[in-house]
Amino acid sequence: MPFDPVRDAVLNSPATEGLPTSPSVARRATHLSVLLNSDSEPLPRTSSSLSQIIHLEPTDKLSSVKPLKKAQETTLSPSDSRPSSSSYFQPASTFPPVMRPPPLLYNPTQRVTPPDSILTPMSKAEMEMYKSYVGKGTARLVKRKRPRDDSDTGDEPPVKKSVGNGGVVVEHYNARPEVGVIQRLDSPIIGLKNFNNWVKSVLISKFAHPALVTSSVRTQRNKGKVLDLGCGKGGDITKWSKARISDYVGADIAAVSVEQAKERWEFNRNANRIQASFATYDFCSQNLEDVFAPEILEKPFDVVSSQFCIHYAFEKEETVRRLLRNVSHWLRPGGTFIGTIPNAEQLLEHLRELPPENQDLSFGNAVYKVRFESREHSGMFGRKYWFFLQDAVEDVPEYLVYWDNFVSMAAEYNLQPLYKEEFHNVFTEHQDHSEFGPLMVRMRVMDANGESSMDEDQWEAANIYIAFAFEKR
Asked: Which intervals hold domain MRNA cap 0 methyltransferase (predicted)?
C-alpha cells in the first residue's frame, strides 16, 4: 500500500485505539528510522501515554533507539554533504561565518575637497570666523612684517595701514564681500548695475569682437586673448566667455578681489574652458612683465579692457604714462583698448552749478554723491574728488580724466580713439538695435513692455560715466 502520512498519522494516533479498522487499511509503522532506513517489518506500536512522557518510563521502543547526542557536542564536518537533524541545535557561535560580497569602497573620481579634509574638527578660531562668514571678501590678506609683541592679541588679525589714496582704494575693495547671484538681485541699485553691464556688453560686441576674430591666438573652439585691467571680482568673465575667447588674463590692485575672480572662473562651467591667469597688479606703479610669467605674455593681447578703474591713475602724469605704456606695449597692432571712465565734463558742470556761498562742495542724490575738495584746480592731473555709490563704492578718492588730455597722451603710445559716448547716449543709440535692444530685456535693464528697472536717481547716476574705445595703430 502506498505511504500516506496523513492516513497513518490518524490510524496511529492514541485517540484511534480500540476503533474498528478496515481489513483493507492495515496499520503500518511510522517510525522514521523504519520508514527511511529499513525494509523490515515495522516495530510494534507502543502506547504513548502522558504518564510515560512525563516520567520518562522506558519502553521497548525507546530502549532500542540510540540516544541523541547533546546539541553542544554536535559539530558540522566540512565533508558532510548536508547537516544532520541534531546540528540545528548548535549555539549561534558555532555556525560557520556567512560569506558575503566585500563592501563597495568609497572612491570618488571628482573630489572637490582633499580626502583628509572630511570630518576634520574645526578649531575654535575657525568656528568663530564662520559665525559671520560671507565670502573671502570678509577676510583681509595681511603680511606681518614685524614680530608679534606682548600687546598683540592672539585671536585678532593685525591691522594693515593704508598708504596714500591707493591704500584706501585697496582696503575698500578688499573689504567688500563677494555675494552670490541671488543676493545681487536684492541690491537697491540692481537696475543701474544691469544697465552698466549692458553698456560693457555693447563695447565688447562693437569694438572687442572685431579684434578677436582676427586673432592669431586660438584653440579648436575659441580665439582671442584679453587683458582685463582692474578685473575686480571677475564680473566680466562671463561676458568674455560668451565672446568665446581662448585666453584671459585678470589683474587687479585688490588681492582679495583677485582671489574671488579666480574662484568665479574655476566654478563657472563655461568660463573654465578659457585659459586664465590672475595676479595682483597695480598699473600705476608696476609693469606687467614684473607680475606675469613670460609665457603668459609671449603673445600680445587682442583686447585690453579696463572698466571703471583707470581714473585712479590720473593722480599724476607718470602713473598715467605707466598705464598707457603697459596697454600699448602688450597690445598688438589692430587690437583695441576699451573701457569706462567718469564723465569729467558733467561732474565739473554740477560743481559750477553749486551756489558760490556753499562751503560743502558736494552734489548727488539718494544713489550717488560726489564731493570736491576745492572749486579751482590747475593742471591736467590730480583733480581729486570723493565718490559714493550706494551698494558699490564707499566714499573713496578718485580723479577726473580730462578727455582731450587723455587722447593726446594716448596718441604718443599709438592709441587712436574710435568711440566716446556718455552712457545716456549709448542707450539712445542702441535701444532699437536688432541685437542690443533684445539684449536689454535679457539683461533685465527693462522688461518686454519697455519699462525700465531703474528709477530716476539711478538713471541720473548712470550718466556720470562715459564709454570709450581706442585702436592701436
From this structure: 187-473
